Amino acid sequence: MPDGSVVTKFTPRPRGETGPALIDAPRIGQDPRMAAMPNEDLLEDTVYGPIPVIGPDGLRPVEQYARPWSGARGTRIAIVVSGLGLSQTGTQRAIKQLPEEVTLAFAATGNSLQRWMKEARNAGHEILLQIPLEPFDYPANDPGRGTLRVDHSAADNLDDLHQSMASITNYTGVMNYMGARFLADADALDPVMRDIADRGLLFLDDGSSAQSLVGQYAKTLDMPHAFADMQLDDQLDERAILTRLDELERIARKNGTAIGTASAFDESIAAIRKWSEEATLRGIEIVGVSAIATDMQR
Predict the structure, then answer these.
(1) Is residue 80 part of a domain?
(2) Contacts of residue 191, Cβ cutoff 8 Å, sequence gap at least 6
(3) Which residues are 44's β-sheet partners?
(4) Is 152 exposed, middle or buried (0-12, 13-18, 19+ CB in 10 A)?
(5) Short-list 236, 269, 264, CA closest to 110
(6) How far apart are CA 150 and CA 152, in angstroms?
(7) Residue 84: which H helix or E strand, with range?
């Protein structure tokens, strides 16, 4: 150029049959500074509010809102603490005291969920949404408002599903809240699983129902999914929970991965926090549940 600067023009040649392959690597996670802000391209406006949808370029919520991990094929464990939003003190304690690698699951029937979601995402947590599903002993055991039921029409269940989905944003997938009867009923489950899959979300089955059909549908629909290996706090005692966490670690070392679930009780939070610090020193990588669910899909 007249001022002495140099401009170089590159014109790529037509690609031949040989040469390096061009790979579109999956886009995982958000900029931490934007973790509490939803990607507007991944939202669909409904009468209940915005709910997740796959973006125009194919980006899925399970990818956008996933917690990044190392990618190493060592021993990986996901810990999911559920029932958040039902108790203000328990929710606050879980967000503030649990390691950021722990996945937090918010009950759709909870309160102030949008505020808690923002705090959890800003603290580095991956999050799930718990959908209330009908148990065998319903209505004696009632998951709460908006429960999806086997005797409801597909349209009614999808309406309830979407109303729950609109309660928060920025989650990678859904998890059942109760629901042994619903998960075992093919006619009721089919449209719900298809809708979840079509929206680019994962499904975490808490493993409480031996009759669950989630695995069959997830494979058929080629959707990210996972099953909890263990309920960690079936005995509400810190030492008992630590013992269960050690059992979960043995499962993970044998299988490569494992998932444990717990509720936001004081004893659970204390045990998980203590065990997590020690497990990291033993070479365990604690990952968001999406890291295991997307592996299950592959």
Answers:
(1) yes
(2) 154, 157, 158
(3) 51
(4) middle
(5) 264
(6) 6
(7) strand 76-84
- To which H or E segment does residue 249 belong? helix 238-255
Q: Is 297 exposed, middle or buried (0-12, 13-18, 19+ CB in 10 A)?
A: middle
DSSP states of 115-168 as a string?
Answer: HHHHHHHHTT--EEEEEEE--TTTTTS---TT-B-TTS-HHHHHHHHHHHHTT-
Q: What pLDDT score was predicted for residue 24?
A: 42
Residues, the chain: 298
The β-bridge relationship of strands 257-263 and 103-107 is unpaired
Q: What are phi and psi of 256, to 5 degrees?
A: 100, -35
The list of the chain residues with pLDDT below 70 reads 12-28
Q: Which amino acid is at 171?
A: Y
The answer to whether the CB of 47 falls within 8 A of the CB of 160 is no
**Which structural domain range is residue 174 located in?**
41-47+57-297
Distance CA 208, CA 133 (A): 13
Helix (H) or strand (E) holding 215, with range, is: helix 214-221
pLDDT at res. 297: 73
**Residue 12, domain member (yes or no):** no
CA distance 50 to 46: 6
The enclosing domain of 221 has a CATH number of 3.20.20.370
Instruction: Identify whether 2 is part of a domain.
Output: no
The tens digit of pLDDT for each residue in 89-133 reads: 999 999 999 999 999 999 999 999 999 999 999 999 999 999 999
pLDDT tens, 193-236?
A: 999 999 999 999 999 999 999 999 999 999 999 999 999 999 99
80 residue type, one letter: V
Decide if 26 is inside a domain: no
Residues 6+ apart with CB under 8 A from 58: none
Query: Considering just the CA atoms, what is the radius of gyration of the chain in Å?
Result: 21
The structural domain count of the chain equals 1
